[in-house]
């Protein structure tokens, strides 16, 4: 199985970005509400005769009930197994016959399905996708085969990867009430106990028009797309979206620590700090401004080649005793329907310990809390954000992903522009303030991988970065 990182649309700047011409869209993005409450978002882009068609459903791992973890992801798989008019496996074959590519992804906050096809075949995939959205149907035998595929995916992506096991257990320790504590792929015991009707019930409950959006980007006419959407999606009967009850995470009142012992060559440390979530892009509240400042802080630490963590921990610049880590990373996961985390991670260099890496990571944040950041650092990360944004808009898939991500967060169509404008306003004092405010022990959960001897005759581990794997699960 492949994996898709499907996190917040506004990502940290890349290592190297060269400006390219901006998208010359004929018309601005448009949003429509179909007669059954489903949303349609259309962005014309005439530069090539291609289109991306996506369906985003505002349901994911966080909407599962206890004992059914992994059911959102299992349903994503089963959506490829047929409908009343399409036999198991025929959906993918039909898209391929149209000259297209397709896949799907599941995360805590959402599930998504997409096809990239010649724009002349858009109506065909809209007909196909709307059919399986409304009429997903398959025999029990298909589920019994597919659940074994999902279990193997869990073994390969989590149980056979020591750092993935650590991250899974770190999330379980970090969150007490939030459903973010459960893995998107599901606990193995829940997968063992899952039934075909668990999956069917989840589909019946959550795959309703008012809980979904169709996103189309490419060489298309919005009026024609709207007509097709009304024909194929708008005819799906309207049903109420289930009531979501709040699952507020209680205040943390002390540092939490876990250790995971696994056969591995190197230790690994991951530090999860509770931070505010970005909820608004207009009339920003104090927490929104802090969330953006934390995003900038993460970029200053680890947003480009030679950023602070690499210079200090990996290269050993200014460090007594030299380099501390083989790799180190930072991420600010500030968008989502649940609580947000700021992650610091590192892999100890030979002869150094996880405790030394943890201390060095803390020291880098503390240094910013005391001194702030340099103007040139801020300008560099902001410039790279602008360039990376241009790159995203140069791709029809990138545009569709951003529009879908922001819809999931209930943000406006121009959320990206508004956030970029707000990021430009973040200054050294803002970054200094959040570095001092959010990195105390009462907001921290630390996970440490404690290496155990590798089994005799086993192959050495493939080197991995010090970054946390927060990717979603993809069909």
UniProtKB/TrEMBL annotation:
- Domain Peptidase M16 C-terminal as annotated: residue spans: 194-384
Peptidase M16 N-terminal domain span? 45-185
Q: Where is this region: Disordered?
A: 450-475
One Pfam family cited in the UniProt record for this chain: Peptidase_M16_C
Q: Which InterPro entries match?
A: Metalloenz_LuxS/M16 (IPR011249), MPP/UQCRC_Complex (IPR050361), Pept_M16_N (IPR011765), Peptidase_M16_C (IPR007863)
Q: Which family does it belong to?
A: Belongs to the peptidase M16 family.
User: Which protein are we looking at?
Assistant: M16 family metallopeptidase
What SUPFAM superfamilies would the database entry show?
Answer: LuxS/MPP-like metallohydrolase
